Amino acid sequence: MTDVIHLLPDHVANQIAAGEVVQRPASVIKELLENSIDAGATRISVVIKDAGKTLIQVVDDGQGMSPSDARVCFERHATSKIKTADDLFRLQTKGFRGEALASIAAIAHVELKTRREQDQVGTSVKIEGSEVVSQEPCVAPKGTSISVKNLFYNIPARRNFLKSDSVETRHLIDEFQRVALAHPAIHFTFTHNGTEFFQLPATNYRQRIVGIFGGKTNEKLVPVKEDTEIVKIHGFVGKPEFAKRSRGEQFFFVNDRFIKSPYLHHAVTAAFEGLLKDKAHPSYFIYLSIDPKSIDINIHPTKTEVKFDDEQALYSILRSTIKHSLGQFSVAPVLDFDRDASFDTPYSFKDKPIEAPKIEVDRNFNPFDQETRPSSYSSSGYRKEPRAGEWEGLYTGLQEHQFDTAVSQLDQVEFESEQDAAKLFEDETQEHLENSIFQLNRKFIVSSLKTGLLVIDQHRAHVRILYEELLKNITVSAAVSQQLLFPLELSFSHREMELLAEARESLEQAGFIFSTMEAGNVQISGIPTPLSESEVPALLHQLLADLENEVPDTGFAYTDTLAKSLAEGMAVKAGVRLSTAEQQNLLNALFACKESSVTPNNKPIFITLSVDEIDKKFI
Asked: Which CATH superfamily is domain 452-590 in?
């Protein structure tokens, strides 16, 4: 019997490893950027074409590589940082030319140009599918340039699983932002299809955050800082009033490496307890410095999850630090009241004997004496006092006709009586019976049927009505807009501006009118008729969060997500009182919809109670 187990060829093993390391173009840009940082680069440029499917190029001015290193870095398990197994638990860097290059070279066309400062000429290496095509000297500036072309060209199945260009671009921007936020001292540029997305000069942490997420971010940040033996914490948290419905601006960095930690995230949200609205999420940029021996960063292939030795202590320190910062900058209420200095007891009174207070009374004071009587104050000012000797005239101002006027006014006052209260109840009941519709608890609309009762959720019903109306407006005809007297100015991050630009045409069909849209600032001069101006910022932020989370790939899915989000934000909420006419119009519009029983998210809109079901309640 022949042997069954055999070793895989190197190119097959590299392709399997690439499937673990390179999941999408964003994985490539993450590895290349980290390599450039560990090479000591001060300027890094990223060039992307077609969301990374055609080209991903990273150029840095780091220390470069020798001709032999340029060739060996593409071999499996090639690295310059790890020599023994113990080094895995003392990692201070992210990797240097080799941890992932073998995997990338197995599934793409890679061209490397590099030169060290002491070398006269550089080295150029071209690899296609793990096979070295050429290696030759070349003219190159100090540093390294790596171009990854035609990603997944030899694995069509993996290429077919990639999302649309807009989705993959957002993932690329996410990875770029994470690296740029962790290293503000490095100058970064990011260009996609010839358009410069980011130009981030070397600066401090706060300005780097503002450079990525827009100038309005500066006023939203609260600094956080704490130094302990276990961990050193610095960074920023967002003010509670600027919390969003999405979790986009939430970043943890451990030793300048981005991580995801639900445990630490819970510590942050616990610090914001009682300060956030329902379903709102705080933004934070937290940088942690911990001894590498007390953490394990190799529990996940992408190194985005970290295992801490003492998680409970870290949780407590982080939570208390954020609470202290929120209180220190008067964001959260604290037990530190402003005191009047006059209430403080002087130190000179410490040894002074206690004396009983003395009360002086003017026993000669006469309230009816013109000279000693203080002025009286009325609601209309100081009242002219009667002269001395006329005090008895104070009670002679009530004339007979004033009593008659008071009595006549009392005749017009309606006093509640048992008979009138019963009549009022009967009239209201009669009105409800005549209209056969009424509002219950400002949330439900109840209508009578021949067979029982119909109970409708007013918010869900309005969502269904607006959803179908918006779909029609976006795809067929434009909606009616209401012009604003003064344009509404809003600010968004770069990623939100990209999403908004994609949705602009559909939003204009829905009734929005955009005056300008550039450099993170948007001016809106018109909004849909059912919407109020104060609701626009929250609606647009929620819309962008929905578009990002839904990740639509087709035109219909995009339009459907847009209509759902707008309808949810514009619909009448529970707790709003509706008149009888509004209730009737809502009822008529609901049953005029193509699908009136469920919301766009397949939640029931109404229920029916038959007479038999009601009878059973009385048994």
From this structure: MutL, C-terminal domain, regulatory subdomain (3.30.1370.100)
